[in-house]
Amino acid sequence: MITFTIDGQTVQAEEGETILDVARREGIHIPTLCYHPAVEPYGACRMCTVEVERRGWTKLEASCTMPARDGLIVRTNTPDVYRFRQSLMGVFLSRCPNVPLIQELAAEYGVTEPPYPTATPEEKCILCGLCVRVCHDVVGAKALNFSSRGVDRLVGPPFLESAHECIACGACSIVCPTGAIEIALEDEAIYKEKPIGPTSAIHVPSLQAVPRIPVIDTNACIRFRQNDLTDGEIADACGVCQTMCEAGAIDFDQQDELVQLKVGAIVVATGFAMWDPKELPDLGYGRSPNIMTGLEFERLTGAAGPTAGQILTAEGKVPKKVAIIHCVGSRDERAHAYCSRFCCMYSLKQAHQVKDKTGAEVYSIYMDMRTFGKDYEEFYRRIRGEGIQFIQGRPSQVTVDPVTGKIFVEVEDILLGQVMELDIDMMVLATAIEPPPDAARIASTFGLGRTPDGWFAEAHPKLKPVETASAGVFLAGCAQGPRDVPDTVAHAGAAALEAVRLFNRGEVTISPTVAIVDAVKCVGCGECIMTCPYHAIDHGAEGKAVVNAVLCQGCGTCAATCPAGAITALHFTDEEIVAQIDGLLDLVV
Amino acid sequence: MSEPFEPKVVAFLCNWCSYAGADNAGIARMPSPPNILPIRVMCSGRVSPEMVLRAFRSGADGVLVLGCHIGDCHYISGNHRTAKRIPLLRNLLGYVGINPDRLRLDWVSSAEAPKFAKVTQEFVETVRALGPMARDSATEETGG
Prior knowledge:
The structure holds 2 protein chains of 2 kinds. Chain A is built from 16 helices and 25 strands.
C-alpha cells in the first residue's frame, strides 16, 4: 500500500495506480481532456498536470501517467499549475476557437480570446488521440490513426478514405471530448432494420421485463460484431461494459452449459410468435413506414418508445386519419383459419389511444367484433361512443402514393353496401399469432401432439385442457392455442396445479395396460429391448427380459416383435385380438 | 348367388390417431363403408404378422392397418416398426397365394377424419374389385 498526500489530504493507493486514478477515487477534481477510464492513459493533452513534490524538489507532471509513490506531495491547484493550464488553454483555444468545451475550460483559466492567430476557425480536433486509442485498444478495428507531423498532424482513417476496417460502431464519436467526429453512415441497414426497436446494444428488453435484466443485442454489440466480421480473429474487442460493471455481472467468457435436471412434471409454456404480414402483400406492410403491426404501434405509443409516447408518423407529424385493420392473417384461409382471439380487444384499445392522444379520425375496419370476455362488450360499447368510425368489411386494396406517402385503403362497408376509399396517414394491422417456429422440435422433445394449425394438442378439448398425451407434461397459455391474458393466467394456474398435484401424492398411478414377460418362454434375444421406444425393457436375471412397469406405456410393439411369443400386452393380448377378429368375421358371415 | 359381393375388411386402428380419426369421421357424419370391421390396438406396432394372417384365415377379404403419421406416434417410434413390418409382410403374402393388394398400410391422424373416410372407401373398392379371397390366384387360395 502506497501512502501520499493530495492537496494536504492523506491518500492510499495500490501499486500501479496513477495519481489521477487516486484523485478521481477520492473525489479530488483534476481537469482532463484526453483521459477515459476505458483506455490506457496517454498523456496527450497535459490538462491533468499537477505539481508533485518529492524529496524537496517540485516539478509539474501529468497526473494521468504519473504513478503514485510513497511520500509524494501532490498539489492540484498551485499558481504554477494554474499558469501552465492557462497557457495550455491558450494554445487549444487558438487551434479550436469554436468548440464550446474548449471555450468554457479556457474561460475557467481566464482565457477568453485566442492569444495566437487562428488558422482554422472550424477546427474541432485537439489531437488528444482518444479516438485512436479506443479504435485500437477497445474496438480492435484499427481504423483510425495519426498521420503527418508537426503542424500538419491530423487524425483519420488511412489516406483519409473510408476504411474497410471501420465497423461504424461510433465509439470514436462517443469518446471524442470536443465532438470532432461525426458518424455518417453509408449503409444504414443496422439502424433501418428496427426503426422503432431498441437502439442501444445493451438494453432491458421491455419496460415490464421479468426478470428486469438488460440483455446484449449481439447484432449491435461491438464485441460480437467484431468477432463475426473477423471470423473470431478479434474476439476480445470492446468489452467496456465488462470493465465498467461494478457488480461484475457481465461475463463474455460464459459458455453454453448443458444442465441435466430430474423433474417430476413439465409445464410447456412456449407461447406464440407473430405472423409476418409480409406473407400477404395486399395489405401493404413494408411498403410504407406508416403501415405497422399492432405490436409496433404499442412500441410507438408506449411511454418508453422512440417518441416518448406521442403518436407520430414516420415523417414526425401527428396523423390526421388512422385506420386499424382487424383480423390480419387470422380467420383468413390464406394464412391462418383460426381466430387469434385477443386482437379485437387491443385494436379497440389502440383506436381509443389514437383518438385520445391525437384526436385523429379513426377507422376501425373489422370482420366481426369478438369481444367475448367479461366486461369486454362494455368496453366495446364505450369505444363505439367515442366517435370512432366502425366499418364492417375487409380492405380489398391498399396503395401507397409514392410522392406524398398517403395510404389509400379501399374497403366495402357491408352494412352500408358501399365501397369506400379512405386516404389515411397511418395504418395499424392487428396481425395473427401463430405457433413459434420451433414448435415441431418442442413437440418431438416432449412427445406432444399438434393440432392441424400447429398448436400443441391438449388431451381432451373440454375435460383435459392442460393435460397432454404424455403423462406429466402440461400446457400453459398460448402454447396450446390463442388466448388473452386472463385466460392465460387461468390456464397456467391450472397447469401449475396439475403439476403440484403429482408431487403431493408422492406416487403415480399407472395404466394397467403394460407388457409382461413370461420368463419361461423368453430366450433373452433382446429384440424387445431394441424395439421399446421408452427403454422400459432390460435384461434381468439369467438374461431374461424384464419390463419396468412404470416406464412401460403399453403400446404392445414388443409383444408383436417377440419371436418367442413370451411377451403379453395386458388388455391387448394375442388371444383377445384374435377373438375379436374371429368374432367380427363370424358376425358378418 | 345373385347377392352382390360385400368384402369383409378387418381394420387395425391405433388408439391415439386412427381410432380417434375414425371417431371424428363418425362425429362429422362422414360416410365410411360398413365393410370396415375395426379392431382397436394401442399402437399400430402391436399388429403382428400373425394377426394379419389370422384375419385372412378367418375369412377377411382385406386387412387395413392404420397408424399415426411417422414422427407423430404416441409411442415415439412404434409406427416405425409397423412401417417396416407391413411392407415386408406384403412382399411375403404372394407366396401364400394372397394378393398383396389385400393388405394396406396408411397413416391417419386424429385430425384427419376426411382421410379416414377416403382411405376406407378406397380400400373397400380395391378389395371389392379383387373379389372374394379364393379368386386371387390361378391356384386355389389357401387363406394363410
